Amino acid sequence: xxxxxxxxxxxxxxxxxxxxxxxxxxxxxxxxxxxxxxxxxxxxxxxxxxxxxxxxxxxxxxxxxxxxxxxxxxxxxxxxxxxxxxxxxxxxxxxxxxxxxxxxxxxxxxxxxxxxxxxxxxxxxxxxxxx
Length: 131
Prior knowledge:
It contains five helices and six strands, in the order βαβααβαβαββ. It has about 130 residues and is an alpha+beta fold. It has two domains: about 1-70, Alpha-Beta Plaits, CATH 3.30.70; about 75-130, no CATH class. The strands form two sheets. A three-stranded antiparallel beta sheet has the order 1-3-2. The chain is globular. The termini are far apart. The mean pLDDT is about 80.
């Protein structure tokens, strides 16, 4: 039996909420890297966020439950209509973000100093804003 990652989160509160929701359906979960991201948020981009993991036996059921919970919010991707997306994704794909990446690289600072919080679709990869 192995653990598989079914979701990643930028903050501990969203990760804990998803964990509690899955555990209410008797699906055991683990939050990997939760302490590091919570104590040192600057390392969030480096380690890839907080990973919500479940047993490989529960993967399909847990994913469907998370999708059903996100569908209750009513938000969908404008490109493909999917409700399977990452909320509060840190994107540097605008002019200020790309400039910040270059300056961060040249000055040796990490992570980039400017990013946008957007939603990223897991189906088509497009980023969008729900506002």
